[in-house]
Here is the input.
Amino acid sequence: MEQFSYQIGVGEDEERLDIWLTAAVSGLSRSYIQKCIKDGQVSVNEKPAKAGYRLRVDDEVSFLIPEAAEPEVEAEDIPLTILYEDEDVLVIDKPKGMVVHPAPGHLSGTLVNAVLWHCKGQLSGINGVLRPGIVHRIDRDTTGSLIVCKNDTAHRAIAAQLKEHSLNRTYRAIVHGVLEAEEGTVEAPIGRDERDRKRMAVNEKNGKAAVTHYQVLQRFREYTYIECRLETGRTHQIRVHMTSIGHPLLGDEVYGARKTPFHLEGQTLHAHKLGFLHPRNGVYVEVEAPLPPYFTRLLQILQ
Here is the structure.
């Protein structure tokens, strides 16, 4: 079993134990954590605790996380939009609302379920049964290009390009406010928000290096249409970085504090281009995902 220990700090108190643990320990559902609490695997100040216990500053939370028994993920006949495919890699235009890989309590309807069907199970196994072929991911409400690897050799090659920041990834986004500069760079480390562990934030103390380049494509009265190029790939990087300079993404319900008059399902963010050196022959391949209909309609409204 894995031991998780944490001391509650200022701003984290008054929250229910089960809700706090769900945010603090990734990959576990609230119902599963509630079961672990009931089974006595969670203690506060070395004493058994209940799911509804309200945390206090300086509480010591300990969680004996059971060894995960990875569930079997089934192939599902879910339609996919294929942007590029050969014997080594597959690039998919992921729709809004689709989760990339399964997680406990959410084992169907994901992109992994779909590619298992499409590829007849021929996917790299480096990331285990829950993430076969998955080298990187994009958020549920982010659309656009995502690469899947069909074998371990391709997986290692693409993963190395990710690590070396040589994978070319550009995104399209609409942000609140009017950006004055034609282009710019946000270089700020990203880590867990120390006041809310469900969110990421610019974290100078515990964050990892993150760099986002942006360029203005079009200005509107209250919004700006931009292109972003990633040097690094931190969780929610573009969303956090643009919020940090006062221009959160339109529709972002997590990092955008401002209300919007438009009926949107999450942030207006689209993985537009994906460029990589082919793992078999080293030839540069670049794939472009067209803007989804909701995005083009929104641009027409703003004009």
